Amino acid sequence: MTNPNPNPTRTAHGQVEPGFEAVRECFETNLGEVEAGAAFAVFRHGRCVVDLWGGTADVSTGAPWTERTRAQIFSGSKGIVATTLLRLVDAGVLDLDRPVSWYWPEFAAHGKGAVTVGECVTYTGGLPAVTARTVDQELIGDARAMAAHLADQEPITQPRLIYGPFTMGWILEELCVRTTGQTLRDFFRQEIARPYALDVDWSAWTPREVAAVTYDDDFTSQYDRFNTSTDALTRAIWANPVPFPRGEVVWNAAGRRDAYIPAANVVGTARDIARMYGLIVEDLHRDDDSRGNIARRSTVRDALTLFVRQDDPTLGFPFAYGRGGFRLKGVPRTGVDGDMFGHDGGGGSAHFAWPGSGISLSYTPNRLLDIGNNDHRAGSLIRALKSSMHELESTAA
To answer: What is the pTM of this model?
Structure first.
């Protein structure tokens, strides 16, 4: 397993607008000390104010990170799923308050008849994992087979919120197929990616186009406690299968590159992921409630309304979700990012919007670090961005 050395240079490519120089400085510090390669993009009121990239896209070949390099964003994919759901709801195809079984009758098995669409995308529907069978790294790429297993499974009733890495994507995939005749991926391409020329997609890529993932034993060892847990549910969520197993970096393997895992293997440029969230911010700021870029203003507001805030029982830190499946601040606080929504990803990526400030952002690294205090990269960039915003507001005043 590769353990890359920090880059010998802090040189960042790209541009920042005046007032955002601190963001470039922070990005270059991270690039020289921590990263293999990365990109960071910020839009403000629809205009790109930060567009940075640098480092190495593939440490095995030395290929550089370029302006067009796409990255795997892992659970950041859930934000793409939630954006697709936003469009499905706005079009009247799905209703967050309607039982999943309304669209998918088999889902009602074993007492799940009342579980709603909204509960499934906020991890409150009792299906954080496949619990009745062993799942391997290959099977998670068969979305409809996994959905069938979930439909034929009893729900977990307590606690209310239990986060899982894969299941919400499989459920939304099945719902999209049953209501539109299209996969979630194809619906996203048709309704969102193509109209706005977004370089964001699932599994439609080659090694040259996407940064190769790298991580070390410190990253994979964080899953050891799940493998050895005495709690069967914890093992089912985080070790059936392990998302990032030791040994081969499975996310670089040819079979995984060809797979379709809705909640986990979206790839994209930071620039276009940030721009996607900016489209939603624009919808929130419209003067009327007519159809916007992705959805009407009222649909977006409803999707962002807090649905659940609770400590996750297996991970041990607070989660908060809006009704439509976007992650909100786990611990509420005020400030330029107080209304943040989006979704982060395993290993350190971050993809969010701050509607009140008109900000949307995406950070895409290819070196994955462990959860918690060992990874300050996204946090440092966001702090630099907030500082820049405060300075700009003070100057304007």
So the answer is: 0.96
